[in-house]
Design a protein that fits this description.
Helices cover 57% and strands 7% of the residues. By secondary structure, the protein is mainly α. The longest helix has 27 residues, at 30-56.
Length: 140
């Protein structure tokens, strides 16, 4: 799998384990194996949904779907995570375009249209969702 890669959007700590270490860990505690299986199942389901979206949805719908997914994945604002009443996504247009499977230029055009409709507010490296319900409708 050397042709695969990942790029972190935030600071991360990476733990590298050999195949033998992973096998030993999985056999040591079945709860770990069950948890990994559940995570892989959820990721497979998410991947199938993204593939379906890329075939059956328009670019604008894919961008709205990606934004909706990112906002629902965020924990709600509260005393431990202060923030405004509107969810914010800290991504560039290029990063969002890559997630939605389109070009940066097309992504920027669609984001401006959504901003003109009052669904979003755009700032450098940050997108604020102003109308979650309308954005979900736009996602199809």
């Amino acid at each position: 799998m050397y042709d695969n890669y990942a790029e972190a959007l935030d600071d991360v700590t990476v733990c590298v384990m050999s195949r033998a270490d992973v096998n030993r860990l999985l056999l040591t505690d079945p709860r770990i194996a069950a948890r990994i299986t559940a995570i892989l199942g959820r990721r497979l389901s998410d991947l199938e949904q993204r593939l379906s979206d890329s075939v059956f949805k328009t670019v604008a719908q894919r961008i709205a779907t990606t934004l909706t997914t990112l906002t629902t994945a965020q924990p709600p604002a509260g005393p431990l995570r202060p923030g405004g009443r509107h969810p914010q996504i800290a991504l560039t247009h290029e990063q969002l375009a890559a997630l939605a499977g389109t070009s940066r230029e097309t992504c920027t055009k669609v984001l401006r249209e959504y901003a003109d409709q009052g669904m979003l507010r755009l700032a450098r490296g940050r997108i604020t969702v102003l109308d979650t319900a309308r954005l979900k409708d736009a996602a199809g």
